């Protein structure tokens, strides 16, 4: 029964994460005004705001103006629910589950915003860093490991960033990516060279595979930008669930 409640919590939080993903890049409040259709501005009734179920019942359209609602909304809700379950299966009924569902929730928002806008909001990346330090006091790592994690995870990516800026005179990584990886390091903590190398490898391998696929399908050109934040997010989630 607890498994059901964990999944349900993920669905509910996922619905709120959708609000964050949509509003934060637009500089809007995530709490006011209440949920409304972005097209006709009509407030969404509670029975039309039930995660996944309402989307299916309405067949993916606004009840009032009938505009199509992106399928991304229920997908994010389901993904959040599944990730909450995976975190629970990994860490059980412990404080670590609380820590890592907070971690996963912020990562989902950051990854989706970067995917859609090529932008990582500082208010979220810095929140990730500070929360990583704060939650170290009640988790499986020490505050020293948290600080070392932020520094050591950041270092190789900063070197890549500096190489692109000073040698190639173009951005290989954005500064937001550096803030994100520092936050990931603060949450995961430094646990040895192997763990650091594994995170680095996973993020770049996933990035390379996706980039090649996009190039082959001609959805991106060689000079087109591809956001790296989602690959960092995927690598971080793999690291805490492995």
Automatic annotation (TrEMBL):
<keyword id="KW-0472">Membrane</keyword>
<dbReference type="Pfam" id="PF01478">
    <property type="entry name" value="Peptidase_A24"/>
</dbReference>
<dbReference type="GO" id="GO:0004190">
    <property type="term" value="F:aspartic-type endopeptidase activity"/>
</dbReference>
<dbReference type="GO" id="GO:0005886">
    <property type="term" value="C:plasma membrane"/>
</dbReference>
<dbReference type="GO" id="GO:0006465">
    <property type="term" value="P:signal peptide processing"/>
</dbReference>
<keyword id="KW-0489">Methyltransferase</keyword>
<feature type="transmembrane region" description="Helical">
    <location>
        <begin position="93"/>
        <end position="112"/>
    </location>
</feature>
<feature type="domain" description="Prepilin peptidase A24 N-terminal">
    <location>
        <begin position="8"/>
        <end position="90"/>
    </location>
</feature>
<dbReference type="InterPro" id="IPR010627">
    <property type="entry name" value="Prepilin_pept_A24_N"/>
</dbReference>
<feature type="transmembrane region" description="Helical">
    <location>
        <begin position="124"/>
        <end position="141"/>
    </location>
</feature>
<feature type="transmembrane region" description="Helical">
    <location>
        <begin position="69"/>
        <end position="87"/>
    </location>
</feature>
<dbReference type="InterPro" id="IPR014032">
    <property type="entry name" value="Peptidase_A24A_bac"/>
</dbReference>
<keyword id="KW-1003">Cell membrane</keyword>
<dbReference type="GO" id="GO:0008168">
    <property type="term" value="F:methyltransferase activity"/>
</dbReference>
<comment type="similarity">
    <text>Belongs to the peptidase A24 family.</text>
</comment>
<keyword id="KW-0645">Protease</keyword>
<keyword id="KW-0997">Cell inner membrane</keyword>
<dbReference type="GO" id="GO:0032259">
    <property type="term" value="P:methylation"/>
</dbReference>
<feature type="domain" description="Prepilin type IV endopeptidase peptidase">
    <location>
        <begin position="101"/>
        <end position="211"/>
    </location>
</feature>
<keyword id="KW-0378">Hydrolase</keyword>
<keyword id="KW-0808">Transferase</keyword>
<dbReference type="Pfam" id="PF06750">
    <property type="entry name" value="A24_N_bact"/>
</dbReference>
<feature type="transmembrane region" description="Helical">
    <location>
        <begin position="6"/>
        <end position="24"/>
    </location>
</feature>
<comment type="function">
    <text>Plays an essential role in type IV pili and type II pseudopili formation by proteolytically removing the leader sequence from substrate proteins and subsequently monomethylating the alpha-amino group of the newly exposed N-terminal phenylalanine.</text>
</comment>
<keyword id="KW-1133">Transmembrane helix</keyword>
<protein>
    <recommendedName>
        <fullName>Prepilin leader peptidase/N-methyltransferase</fullName>
        <ecNumber>2.1.1.-</ecNumber>
        <ecNumber>3.4.23.43</ecNumber>
    </recommendedName>
</protein>
<keyword id="KW-0511">Multifunctional enzyme</keyword>
<dbReference type="InterPro" id="IPR000045">
    <property type="entry name" value="Prepilin_IV_endopep_pep"/>
</dbReference>
<dbReference type="InterPro" id="IPR050882">
    <property type="entry name" value="Prepilin_peptidase/N-MTase"/>
</dbReference>
<keyword id="KW-0812">Transmembrane</keyword>
<feature type="transmembrane region" description="Helical">
    <location>
        <begin position="196"/>
        <end position="216"/>
    </location>
</feature>
